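Transcription factor, K-box (Helianthus annuus), 111 aa
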Amino acid sequence: MGEDLDSLSLKELQNLEQKLDASLKHIRLRRNQLMFESISALEKKVKEIEKEVARQAHIEQQDRHNMSSYHFDTYISAAYQAGGNGLVEESPRQAQPSIVLPPWMLQHINH
């Protein structure tokens, strides 16, 4: 394009320039529209992923809370089954409960 311009008059060149400007304007509008649609779709995907990540984090937090409550309940239950004095006595024949306490509880027990 642009090779056979020598034979065109000034008016023909101006008309060609106007047509090119109009075509470029149309092309740029379409390109911008496609980019906007693409950005909107990506923003929607990001929001969906953020919601899923937040949901998973909430589930994990609930699981950690439930697990801590379970281990605490197991400890309390084992302590009172052993005699009600809060001490679990070891017995060679009896299997010991697997007790996992959160660090903040260990500080209170050790002091």
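The mean pLDDT is 78. The helical segments are 10-81, 103-110. ok done for today
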